[in-house]
Amino acid sequence: MKKKSRILLIVALILCLTITACGKATKEVEKQPEVKQPDTTVEQKDEVVEVSTVSASDQYLKFDSGESFDKNAVYDAYEKDVGVKITNKWIAADDNQFKEKLKMSIASNDIPDFMRVNATQLKELTEADMIMDLTEVYDKNATDETKKFLMMDGGMQMKTATFDNKLMGIPSSYNPYQYQYIFLRTDWLKKLNLPEPKTMQDLLTIAEAFKTKDPGGTGKPYGIAVSKDPFNGNTGVTGLRAFLNSYHAYENMWIEDGNGGLVNSDIQPQVKDALKALQDMFKKGLIDPEFAVKDTEKEAELLYNNNIGIVYGQSWVPAQLVKGAVKDGKVVQEWGVFPIPSVDSSPAQSQIGLGVDEYYVISKQAKHPEGVIRLLNQYIVTQAHPTEEQKVYEYGKDKVEKGANYWLLNPLRVGRQIDNNGEILPKAIETKDASILETKDQKTRYERAMKYVDGSDINMWWEYLISGPKGAVSNVPAIQQNKQYLQNKFYGAPTPTMADRQEILIKKRDEVYFKIMMNQVSVDEFDKFVAEWKKLGGDEMTKEVNEWYAANK
Amino acid sequence: MHTNRSFARRLFLVINFIVLASISFLCLMPIIHILAISFSSGAAASAGKVTLWPVEFTTAAYDNVFGKPEYLRAFWVSIQRVFLGTAVSMLLTIITAYPLSKDSRQFRLRTFYAWFFVFTILFSGGLIPTYLTVKNLGMLDTIWALVLPGAVAVFNVILLLNFYRNLPKELEESSRIDGASHFTTLWKIYVPLSLPALATTGLFTMVGHWNSWFDGMIYMNHPENYPLQTFLQTVIIKMDFRFIKPENAELMVKLSDRTSRAAQIFVAAFPILIVYPFLQRFFIKGIVMGSVKE
Amino acid sequence: MNGLTRMWKREWPLHLMLVPGIALVLIFSYIPMAGIMMAFQKYVPNKGLFGSPFIGLKNFKLLIEYPDIGRIFFNTVYIALMKIVAGLFVPITIAILLNELRKEWVKRTFQTLVYLPHFLSWVLLSGILIDVLSPSSGILNQVLGLFGIDPVFFLGDNKWFPYVMVISDVWKEFGFGTIVYLAALTGINPSLYEAAEIDGAGRFKQTLHVTLPGMLPIIILMFTLNIGNVLNAGFEQIFNLYSPPVYESADIIDTFVYRMGIQQAQFGFATAVGLLKSVVSFIFVSMSYFIAYRVANYRIF
Q1: Is there a domain that residue A22 lies in?
Q2: Is residue A240 a contact partner of residue A278, using CB atoms and an 8 Å limit?
Q3: How far apart are CA A351 and CA A488, in angstroms?
Q4: Which of A195, A227, A194 has the alpha carbon at shortest distance from A212?
Q5: Using one digit for the tens of pLDDT, what is the confidence trace for A397-443?
Q6: How far apart are CA A458 and CA B37, in angstroms?
Q7: Does residue B52 sit in the same domain as residue B160?
């Protein structure tokens, strides 16, 4: 009898002991000195320095046998070529999990030597004095090539990482010149004998014809695809930003008021015109009446099923459209891509971002910040003009493309701020001339598009519609040349009022925009919204933004 | 009179059956729909063409999950977690609920202790301090991080103590008169007589352990240590459309959210679904009375 | 003195049994509760909980001064209360009805079927709900059409949205909720039924006078614990189904906190809202605890 009670007691005790024991065991392991790798390299400048980071894997990363995040060909190459040994504090299985874990690391003040953070975290870490001022380290250790690479956009992106003249992060840059286009069913245009859209009026006529004549034969046609989040962010597909742009209206952007100050685009009268037009379309049944509850994925059903033949989106939209356009190795829907038209005689300007939303920062505790900059230098070199030997950085030890996503192992990655895909790719694909291709990206895209051209993989239709002769990027040179784009004039950290009030301003805006669009209220509600916007902190925010603008012009 | 009542009774039984059958039907339909999606081609699923039967039958979504070497490893972590977690948690629940089920005359501080436990379901310090605690105990990357923080399931403790209370007092008294200790009474009388309640709390614990994925992500520093649900979160490519860069266009093509999400449900839920019908056998009526008569 | 020693002698095994539970709860619940301080701080990670500057009630002010705060509180409480009531009533009814089934295998089959939806995620279900409730092609509106009722845009209409949330949530969770009551039913003494039958009580009266009183302790317990959720209206569900046209009736505290979190990466605000919710839960739970104690001399836990 007594035995049982004793057993329970013992179990309880063991439980308590395990907790403490576990704690100790792991700590001891942590304290063990790192086993130094023997130095085998010859051409090394300095001794090998060690930097720690945190990494995200993804489900397509496939390691060669015997390799892992702890030891792999890419890390070995960095250690051998630039004398930097990379270790990971932790590894997340994908980018979403990376972001969650990163929040924990920052909040618990347990950050590695360097890591990739977003703009808000950059500001937070700067204020908390947890990261290093990189001005000097960067200046001393970055090569001329690196410096040039990160200034290709004229220095905008570097500026967004600079606080009080201190460089606090390396922008994880990419090309900001991503425009919105109209994608529409060219087979339907032919069927209904309609011209390609040159003006906004053309586009509205086409939308109406697609509705009334139902070229898809579904019995339930609409004019244009819209989803529940059409204004926020750069809604990639089924958005309405570009629609606003056609009316010279822009989504939540700070634009010049003509008197040397900045105003918020959300409350400008041009938006009212655009909303009026959307309301008219809704009344005519050109917009799916249920769009407000459907996300992109749901609304896209109507594209795949021939209910809708017009959609706005970025250059990569064909990658989504392909799900409905290609069936059993045959193209069953023909799509064309067109630049956004204007409602009047002045050309429409495409609203674009700054091309940077993440930064690499270095911890104040880091012993070898120069090592991080060396990683950056090397990455740019191996991306821009890799030697045969340096292909290891991209593909692993075999140096050939195996679809293993080895590039993911590069711990610090920056992208080109400007590309000439628009000039090169359509020409190369049209003339089947691979010799004019310059970058790795262009070569990949060319190969993919050629698979469609020679018929070996019809699914690559999407790449052809992006990069081909009449593809999306073929529109870029003209837009670039005529400067038909508009960037946010405010790129500072969120102002105090912005941090507290931006949420309610966007909520109120979405509410009223949607209600006007859905014809639940008159378009004049817009004026009431403008007054409310100003009262709810908009005026305060505008003041702060203008103070920033005066100081940073 | 008598026939009348039995007619009414029979009518009730028929109606009752029909009502419950229709409700079960309403619960089953979506499951069949999702099962059909999981066996359909990505194109048919994203075009919304699937209703209750697979369109363009394929097992691609399942191959995608099962084909990964990580799958078995994650499955194994989950099994370990469920067994260890349920064992520890049930043991704690059983011994914690017993003293609390006494009334205040028998155990003066019981109400204080009861509130001491209940307080923890109402107030929480949040994610970060909990994470720091687990980290400072050196439990990151160990199975204990998944097992111990939630080991005292206060809800289950309270549920069980209410069941304990319903047991006839005479049983305990006679056992105590025989000189048995509290531990023996708990083990010999309380535990066998509260089988339905133990099955219920056991099920809640197992389902809880099996389904949780967030702690796996936060506490595990290497994907090799992920439990199944955390791993499955990564199989579905979640894409924030706002942040798609042109370089990622290729990913868009691979993206077939619906079929893999649907398959995930079945891959993830099946093992735990079969536990319930099995546990139902412990829902024995009159178990308590049987023992008293004896 | 003598009394105390005797008490200790009698009660020490009971204390002992609580030791492991208390130890774990202290470590994993009470120690981290220091984090509640963040609600009053501008938390700076490298200064930690004890070094971060205090900012008083600023986080609470931000919440109280939020222009739509009244609406958001109303929506939260309205949806949550309906879910609590329906989430109590439906599982109890179903448990009793299941209990009336004669054949054991039929009962088990139904039991298992209604338990399935618990395992579906709202991400998946939202897609299904949009289809089922669609005013143009949804099956529900087609059925309503047979009765001459005009199509209703359930998910896009402020009049309907809260009820859709309640009904779909109850549908998803009632089967799982039934389990507890089924377990409670097993504890009812069968001789009570026999006695009632001898008194001439029909099945309905038996249910009223034997079954329900037998389940009462568990029902009260479940009610008490659920009432603590009066400010939890179900984030996953609403977040996946709401949209700007129904913000008016759908925006709840948790969705608001989520949207704020995107704008500012401050832990303080979320902690402050969490603390407020905890305090409200605490008040409701202790109220029902003490009412039960005063009125019925019954301790819920």
Answers
A1: no
A2: yes
A3: 8
A4: A194
A5: 988 877 788 888 999 999 888 888 999 999 999 999 999 998 888 88
A6: 25
A7: no
Strands annotated E in A186-283: 254-256, 262-264
CATH (domain of A546): 3.40.190.10
Contact B133 C32 (CB under 8 A): yes
Chain C contact residues (CB < 8 Å to A): 13, 16-17, 19-20, 23-24, 27, 43-48, 62, 66-68, 127, 130, 134-137, 153, 155-156, 241, 243-245, 247-248, 251, 256, 259-260, 262-267
Give the count of domains, chain B.
Answer: 2
What is the per-residue pLDDT for A25?
39
Between C44, C248, C263, which is nearest A128 by CB? C44
Q: Is A553 helix (H, G, I), strand (E, B) or coil?
A: coil
Distance, CA of B209 to CA of B216 (rounded, Å):
10
Pairwise CB contact (< 8 Å): B285 & C127:
no
Which residues of chain A make contact with B49, given a CB cutoff of 8 A?
305
**B25 and B99 belong to one structural domain:** no
- How many CB atoms lie under 10 A from the CB of residue B104? 11
Are the beta carbons of A304 and B244 separated by less than 8 Å? no
Nearest one of C271, C72, C62 to A500, comparing CA atoms: C62
Identify the closest residue of chain C to A131 by CA–CA distance.
C46
The amino acid at A184: L
Residues A260 and A235 in one domain: yes
Chain A residues inside the 8 Å CB shell of C260: 503
Strand partners, A339: A181
Mutate to test the interface with B, among C18, C38, C174, C206 (most CBs of B within 10 A): C18
Given a cut of 70, whether residue C171 has pLDDT beyond it is yes
Neighbours of chain B (3+ CB pairs under 8 A): A, C
Residue burial A56-86, b: 16+ Cβ < 10 Å; e: rest: bbebebebeeebebeebbbbbbbbbbbbbbb
For residue A235, pLDDT beyond 70: no
Residue of chain C whose Cα is closest to the Cα of B118: C301
Q: Scanning every residue of chain B, which has its alpha carbon at the shortest distance from the alpha carbon of A100?
A: B218
Q: Does residue B117 sit in the same domain as residue B83? A: yes
Name the residue facing B241 among A22, A59, A296 (closest C-beta): A296
Contact C21, B92 (CB under 8 A): yes
Name the residue facing B16 among C100, C184, C217 (closest C-beta): C100
High-pLDDT (> 90) share of chain A, %: 70
| B124/C125 CB distance under 8 A | no
For residue C247, which of C65, C67, C72 has the smallest C-alpha distance? C72
Q: Mind telling me how many Å the CA of B245 is from chain A's nearest CA?
A: 8
Mean pLDDT in order along chain B per 10 residues (294 residues)? 69 94 94 92 84 89 81 92 97 96 89 95 91 94 95 95 87 83 89 91 94 93 92 70 54 68 85 86 71 52
Question: Range of B37's domain?
Answer: 2-60
Note down the domain range covering A471. 421-481
- Nearest-CA distance A56 → chain B (Å): 10
Cβ contacts of residue B198 below 8 Å, gap of 6+?
Answer: B90, B94, B160, B191, B282
Residues of B in contact with A441 (CB under 8 A): 247
> Nearest-CA neighbor of A419 among B244, B245, B239?
B245
pLDDT one-digit tens code per residue, C110-124:
999 999 999 988 988
**% chain A with pLDDT above 70:** 91
Q: Which of A121, A228, A298 lies nearest to residue C265, judging by beta carbons? A: A121
A 10 A CB-CB count for A53 gives 22
Q: Which of B217, B241, B251 to mutate to test the interface with A (most CBs of A within 10 A)?
A: B241
Specify the pLDDT at position A203. Answer: 96
